[in-house]
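To assess whether the prediction recovers the assembly geometry, we first specified each molecular entity separately, as shown.
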Amino acid sequence: EAGVAQSPRYKIIEKRQSVAFWCNPISGHATLYWYQQILGQGPKLLIQFQNNGVVDDSQLPKDRFSAERLKGVDSTLKIQPAKLEDSAVYLCASSLGETEAKNIQYFGAGTRLSVL
Amino acid sequence: AQTVTQSQPEMSVQEAETVTLSCTYDTSESDYYLFWYKQPPSRQMILVIRQEAYKQQNATENRFSVNFQKAAKSFSLKISDSQLGDAAMYFCAYEGAGGYQKVTFGIGTKLQVIP
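The predicted structure of the complete assembly is given in tokenized form:
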């Protein structure tokens, strides 16, 4: 079974530039999560999708961050414009969302973003 | 809002020995899930163990077990017979039950295994 795929693995940009990250969850997983993990901290949920609908985006800085999950499969997270404090690893995770094991999350390798 | 506290930034253990990582949480809910996730250096985060709050029996997965104290809101992870591959960041996480709940992570504990 293929895992959660994320790209790119690394990205370096200058502040005020735009950047986009892509995530393809495990096939059949209804729930998709985007996390921001700043160095030395635990992951912080940015947005959670159930199929193609948003379940929680309370911690997403909506003035600069946006995310979509068209067709309820893969997802993109965009930052425009980036700030220095956006430097972090962006993790994507997915879960079945349907059964007893619904809330076991499977994580991708993450995208490490450096904003200069 | 729920909070998860991991008070040990770093821990070390001798190979083959046992180590316990601490986690406390704060919630007003009666039903919820608790998790321990492992994040090896430069590798993906994976689930170590999951505990459902309504189950009094502590969860175990091979060398990994938890001590779940609901009244004290404590959820510690015990790793027995530590192996070099256990070296990683360990994150404690909380998720409320019912519907789609946000997962809250602690800041993590870095575990070093000494050969």
